[in-house]
Amino acid sequence: MEMLNQLKRQLQTLEEQDLIRTRRTVDTPCGPRVSVGGRELLAFCTNDYLGLANHRSIKLALQEGAAMYGVGSGASHLISGHGRAHTMLEERLVEFVGAHLESPRALTFCTGYMANLAIVTGLTAADRDADIFSESLNHASLIDGARLSRANVKVYPHADLEALTKLLAASNAATKLVVTDSVFSMDGDLAPLPQLLALCEQHGAWLVVDDAHGFGTLGTNGHGALEHFNLRSPNLVYMGTLGKAAGVSGAFVAAHETVIETLIQKARPYIFTTAAPPALAHALLTSLELLEGDEGRSRRAHLQALVAQLDDGLRLKRWQRMPSMTAIQPILIGDNAETMRAGAALYEQGLWVGTIRPPTVAPGTSRLRVTLSAGHSSMEVAKLIAAINALERT
Across the beta sheet with 131-135, what order do the strands follow? Predict the structure, then answer.
C-alpha cells in the first residue's frame, strides 16, 4: 500500500501544478468535426494535416487489403511477417523520397517512435564511442533513442549552428550522428536543414531527419522537408511517419541501401517487433498516390491559405502566436493554469485545441497548440480566430 500511496502523492503533485493529462473518447472518425461524449466539436488538435484519415479511397483500399491479406501479420518481418504489401510499400516510398538520397532503400515500421529508436540505436550499435549531436527541441523518440544507444550524447541549443559547429569540430568519434526534427512538433518552425547537412558533410556525420510533421505537407509534391529544401546527400537518413498527413499508420526510414541493411541486422525495434498488418501497407499505396497527385497539391494549397488566415486574423497582446508557416500554430501563454483555463473555455465553445505544458515544453512556456487541417473550412478557422481573440481579452 505504501507503494500505491507514493504513486498517489506523485499524481497529486501533478494535479496541483496543473500538469495532469486527461483522455477524451472520440466516437466518430478522425477529422475536423468529431463527436466526444455526445458533443459535436471542431477539432484543432489532430495531426491529420491533409484530412485524409477518413478519405473514402483510402478506406476502400484498407478493405481491399484486408480481403487480400487478412488482418494480422503473425510475426516479425524477419520471420514470416513481411508480406508482399510491405515490399510494395517500401518500393513505392523509395520512389516517393528517393530522389534526395544516394542508392536509396526504405524500411517500414509500426510507429515513428520505433523508427527513431531503430535509427539511433542501430547506427551506433557497433560503436559505443559514437557521438550523437541532438537538437534541444527534438521529439522524445529521438531523445530516448540517444539514451538507449549508450553513445556519447551532446545536446546543442535550438537551431544554433555555431554551437553545433564547435561540437562537431571537437569530436574525434568515428561515428557521428546529428539528429533533428524537420518541423518541431510543439513550435511549428523548421530546422535549418541545408546548413545542418553542409556541416554533416564537412565533418563526416550522418544527418538523421525526423520529418514526422513535414512528410506530405512540405514540398510541391508532398515529398517532405528534403523536397522543400531541395536536398540530396548520401549522409541523409530520413524518417517519415504515415499516420499524420498520410492519414493511415506507421512510419518508414529511407537512406542509402547500406544504412537500411544495417538497421535490418542491428536495430532491435525492427528485429523484435511483429510487423504491422499488411492491409495498412496496401492502404498506404493509395494514400501516397493522393499525396503526390492533384488532390494532394490542392489540399496543401488550402492548408497554406488557412495558415495565412490565422496569422492575419489573430490580434494578440498578452499571448503570442509563435512564428510558423506549417500546420502547427502554437499560441504561447506561459502559465500552466491560464493555459488550462483557455483550453477549457474554447472546449465549452465547441473548439477542441490542445493544451501543452511541461515536461513536453519548457517550464513557463505552456501554450495552446492549434493544428490546422485541409479538412477545415475558412469559416471554421474564422470561428477559432474570433474565439481566441475574445478569450485573450477576458
Answer: 104-109, 251-256, 236-241, 206-210, 176-181, 131-135, 152-156
